[in-house]
């Protein structure tokens, strides 16, 4: 049996309590919105590009500790990254939350490994990421977790 | 006096541990557990009688037909309908309401008419009316709910203004699946009749909890689901007054509901067959009849009292938790208690409580507009049934206190 402290690691509780880069980005050139219809969680991601790199990124919305902490941590990871790098980071993150395998380089993202034992919560952890990737593609269409297989 | 311990022993699923703790099942507003007698009725049917109904001349088909039609008679008696032909079997409350929203609305609603409903309806008694209004050009209006925690019930003064002769249909829930409030449905039916409006009652949350008598209510339609009254999933009922059903066109067509068919067209059987195209859900109708037997064997007034007492006790004990916000009435409530904490999301609470063996539900409870009105994205809901105990409320309160400590550290 997986313990709750595996799911709610300190990193997650901390990002939930003190979210980073939270709020609308008034001058954002890219915006995308994510919805998880099964639980009502919402997440909007705002970003600006400098060339092909993300120069500014914020999120807002509401949802459980997992979804909010994940979006918060994601913004800290994606700043300065290109769309291709963002996609790679998402794939790594996705692997962590679905397999529970912790990454070789110890980072805060490892805190999300515990999510894999709670399959219903994987969508919570990936909601912000789906919105961010849509924003990067310039698709201002709502990202819904229901259209993805995770 | 009912022996509640022996009632609990009737439900095999309750005798288990979840995450190493005794299961405390408090998700009864979503679905209730099944007593052995209902489970056995399904096994018996499939092991002895399984066949298709109607037109069958062999022994098994006759047994299946008797079982299925006997179930209709049993359900009619359960809600005191005048005639079994007033009982239409559906998949559940949602399909029942949709049948009225499609068939009745299509024949009767026009621009300028008003469909009246309330601000506290489940999506199943809301979205079908939005669609019916769009299709017909009628206007949809809502009876408002009072109080910042919806503790004041529906605004009966507003109802005076809203219930005009333009209202052709008034659809309302009996018991709110989110607030635990009980609507004055006798009064609603009487006042709707006074302006010539037909009434549609969503009895999903009340059917297994309080006695219902459609003739005393004098309602026009009443919808409920079997799985919320100890019956199987996938079976529900639309009760309709005979004179209305006789004039109502079918929503679905096909086999079993026709008298004659030629290449040019077809003619319909009377109710209830007219509304039951295709092979019906025979086994689950029989299971639903067993659930009626079971609930009647317990004394439905005693069930209602138990439900009310647990709801009241839960409200009072939860009120002692600092920072909690509880929705719905302070008094005269039933066993549905939904609550929120300012900084802890409902899904985190449900995940945490699950580790204590508690089955709760978190989210908008198919009440998105109501949540928005109350400034909430969701709540956690504890809902009770005949097998729940006062001790289980203590388990809930203790778990919530631990959750608060965990997220507050």
Query: Using only CA atoms, what is the Rg of chain B?
Result: 22 Å
Count every helix of chain A, treating DSSP H or I runs of 4 or more residues as helices: 5
Strands of the biggest beta sheet of chain B: in what spatial order?
Answer: 4-10-9-8-7-5-6
Could you state the order of secondary-structure elements of chain A as H and E? HHEEEHHHE
> Given this structure, which CATH class of chain A is correct?
Alpha Beta
What is the annotated CATH architecture of chain A?
Alpha-Beta Complex
Q: Which geometry of chain A do the CA atoms define?
A: globular
Residue runs with pLDDT of under 50 for 5 or more positions of chain B = none
Specify the number of helices of chain B. 14
Largest interface: A-B, 19 and 20 residues
Structure description:
The complex is a heterodimer of chains A (150) and B (409). Chain A is an alpha+beta fold. Chain A has a single domain, classed as Sufe protein. Chain: A. Helices cover 39% and strands 19% of the residues of chain A. A four-stranded mixed beta sheet of chain A has the order 3-2-1-4, with helices on one face. Chain B is α/β, with parallel strands linked by helices. Chain B has two domains: 4-27 and 299-408, Aspartate Aminotransferase, domain 1 (Alpha-Beta Complex), CATH 3.90.1150.10; 40-296, 3-Layer(aba) Sandwich (Aspartate Aminotransferase, domain 2), CATH 3.40.640. Chain B is 40% helix and 17% strand. In chain B, the strands form five sheets. Chain B has a seven-stranded mixed beta sheet, sandwiched between helices. In chain B, strands 13-14-17-16 form a four-stranded antiparallel beta sheet, with helices on one face. A two-stranded antiparallel sheet of chain B has the order 1-2. In chain B, helix 3 packs across helix 10. The longest helix of chain B is centred in the first third of the chain and has 20 residues, at 59-78. Classes of the chains: A alpha+beta (150), B alpha/beta (409). At the A-B interface, helix 3 of A face helix 12 of B.
